[in-house]
């Protein structure tokens, strides 16, 4: 995990080679010389979606990769009314959790809350003791927590305690509030509270289902669900059953997905090894499998959305978990660092970058290499137009890897105008300002979409992780008085919940199994093999390259 985080944040590691995600920009072959006029002609689709409100938002706070983060205040919308006594709470989509002014932080402030360990300022919840925040999560007869609070606290609470510990406390408070364990409890009161407790459990199981892979979590859930379903209301039993069935389906799908990933990983082989042992098994390239750049961009989007869909929101927090100074359990943090789906997605980015570099370095003839470069430039442009920024950046990263960028004779035959513009869009200067502008355009398009294709927003994932990391590092989890710094967690939850909205989009494109199979399983060159193929295509230019070429031929091919 330490190595994964270091690579993700661009740190230098004593490893064999740097991830293409963080290939040094000094290796880039192309200068950023595109004009604004060129950019607007190719990317007018997203640029046209930019509204006056978006221009205003550009002046608001944006998390910086390079500076410390300070909490900010957002204007508060109108306070929502507490849920009616007879109505069943409903779960709105993630996009409904926010409006243009940010979180709904009006969380039914009362004198009791103010005296119970919660601190407000201008009706905004800023901090509180952990116990008070837990109590604020649990509904009672006259109160149901705001959905933004539920999401934010369930997301951030794992920084301070295990999810199963929180569930145990919630169960205890629910039983205490409802007096379900008392056979003489007021049944009318039970009927009022039961749907709210059930809705809280539904929120938890729908948004953080991976928490329930822990047997202790599932045991507490079943116990509380049984108490709710044991009442006289048939509706409660039916809703409990539906909640449990939905959770089981999600966990089963996750297990199946992880099995597929494990199978793909176990069968992956270095392309050079395959070429030496079974050269006839790789007689195709990506163009022979799919000669249409738009179709390939669609299939890449399939893979991106499928892998995004399995990333749990808690993984963003667990990736950067550190020891809570008030936590005496020294073993708990190592146990809860479960980020396998997040890591698998980063590995996919790296694979795609190496696949692009492999496909470019493989052809023997210069004109074929140039054709392959132009093909991937077109694929990258189509990814941009779709809103698939992660595949776009992976392709650019692959083409900027040193074994590819050093092929000067090949690049001389390439029409690079479109590539110049793509690089300009993903230019890291000014904290990726151009990319962030394009991302806001895609997000605005998604909000006003008239078709499923316009809803697609796939962010450059490593930058999203960096934003969350620096937000986490820039603010303390606890204030000097020991209170939880909830202002920080509002901002954290806002970023994660936006991602949650994007990952729930269903891919509208038709699946092509042949293309998907190739993208996911075809062997790719290692970094050393890429350098060797590059030197074989266009010979070394200096003594350092010549020495490395000889060394690679000796170690990889057994030649001198």
From TrEMBL:
UniProt-listed PROSITE patterns: RASGEF, RASGEF_CAT, RASGEF_NTER
GO process annotations (BP): Ras protein signal transduction
Secretion signal span: none
CDD domains (alphabetical): RasGEF, REM
Family annotation (SUPFAM superfamilies): Ras GEF
InterPro entries for the chain: Ras-like_GEF, Ras-like_Gua-exchang_fac_N, Ras_G-nucl-exch_fac_CS, Ras_GEF_dom_sf, RASGEF_cat_dom, RASGEF_cat_dom_sf
Ranges of residues in domain N-terminal Ras-GEF: 121-248
Pfam families for the chain: RasGEF, RasGEF_N
Keyword terms, alphabetized: Guanine-nucleotide releasing factor
GO MF annotation terms: guanyl-nucleotide exchange factor activity
Claim: Cell membrane is one of the keywords in the record: no
Cellular compartments per GO CC: plasma membrane
Entry-linked Gene3D superfamilies: Ras guanine-nucleotide exchange factors catalytic domain, Son of sevenless (SoS) protein Chain: S domain 1
Domain Ras-GEF: 292-540
Entry protein name: RasGEF domain family member 1B
């Amino acid at each position: 995990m330490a190595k994964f985080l270091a690579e993700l944040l661009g740190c230098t590691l004593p490893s064999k080679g740097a991830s293409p995600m963080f290939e040094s920009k000094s290796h880039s072959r192309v200068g950023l010389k595109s004009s604004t006029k060129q950019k607007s002609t190719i990317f007018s689709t997203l640029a046209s979606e930019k509204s006056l409100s978006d221009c205003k938002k550009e002046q608001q706070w944006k998390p910086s990769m390079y500076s410390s983060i300070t909490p900010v205040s957002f204007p508060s919308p109108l306070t929502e009314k507490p849920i009616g006594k007879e109505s069943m709470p409903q779960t709105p989509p993630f996009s409904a959790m926010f409006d243009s002014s940010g979180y709904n932080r009006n969380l039914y402030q009362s004198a009791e809350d103010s005296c119970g360990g919660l601190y407000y300022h201008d009706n905004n919840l800023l901090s509180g003791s952990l116990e008070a925040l837990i109590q604020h999560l649990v509904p009672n007869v006259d109160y149901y927590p705001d959905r933004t609070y539920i999401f934010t606290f369930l997301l951030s609470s794992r920084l301070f305690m295990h999810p199963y510990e929180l569930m145990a406390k919630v169960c205890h408070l629910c039983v205490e509030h409802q007096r379900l364990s008392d056979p003489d409890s007021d049944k009318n009161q039970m009927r009022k509270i039961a749907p709210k407790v059930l809705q809280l459990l539904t929120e938890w199981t729908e948004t953080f289902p991976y928490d329930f892979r822990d047997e202790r979590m599932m045991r507490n859930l079943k116990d509380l669900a049984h108490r709710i379903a044991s009442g006289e209301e048939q509706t409660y039993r039916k809703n409990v059953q539906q909640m449990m069935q939905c959770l089981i389906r999600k966990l089963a799908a996750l297990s199946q997905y992880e099995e597929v990933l494990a199978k793909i990983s176990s069968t992956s082989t270095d392309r050079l090894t395959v070429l030496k042992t079974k050269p006839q098994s790789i007689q195709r390239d990506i163009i022979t499998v799919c000669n249409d750049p738009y179709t390939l961009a669609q299939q890449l989007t399939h893979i991106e959305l499928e892998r995004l869909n399995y990333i749990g929101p808690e993984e963003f927090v667990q990736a950067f978990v550190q020891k809570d100074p008030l936590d005496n359990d020294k073993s708990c943090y190592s146990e809860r660092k479960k980020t396998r789906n997040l890591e698998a997605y980063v590995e996919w980015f790296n694979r795609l970058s190496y696949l692009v570099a492999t496909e470019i370095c493989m052809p023997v003839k210069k004109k074929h290499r140039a054709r392959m470069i132009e093909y991937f430039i077109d694929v990258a442009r189509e990814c941009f137009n779709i809103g698939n920024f992660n595949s776009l950046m992976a392709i650019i990263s692959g083409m900027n890897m040193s074994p590819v960028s050093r092929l000067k004779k090949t690049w001389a035959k390439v029409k690079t105008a479109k590539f110049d513009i793509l690089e300009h869009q993903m230019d890291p200067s000014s904290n990726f300002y151009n990319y962030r502008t394009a991302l806001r355009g895609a997000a605005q398009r998604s909000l006003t979409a008239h078709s499923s294709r316009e809803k697609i927003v796939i962010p450059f994932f490593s930058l999203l992780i960096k934003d969350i990391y620096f937000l986490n590092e820039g603010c303390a989890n606890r204030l000097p008085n020991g209170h939880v710094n909830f202002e920080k967690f509002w901002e954290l939850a806002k970023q994660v919940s936006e991602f949650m909205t994007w990952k729930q989009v269903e891919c509208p494109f038709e699946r092509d199994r042949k293309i998907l199979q190739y993208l996911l399983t075809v062997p790719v060159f290692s970094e050393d093999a890429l350098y060797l193929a590059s030197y074989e295509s266009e010979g070394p230019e200096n003594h350092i390259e010549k020495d490395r070429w000889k060394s690679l031929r000796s170690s990889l091919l057994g030649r001198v």
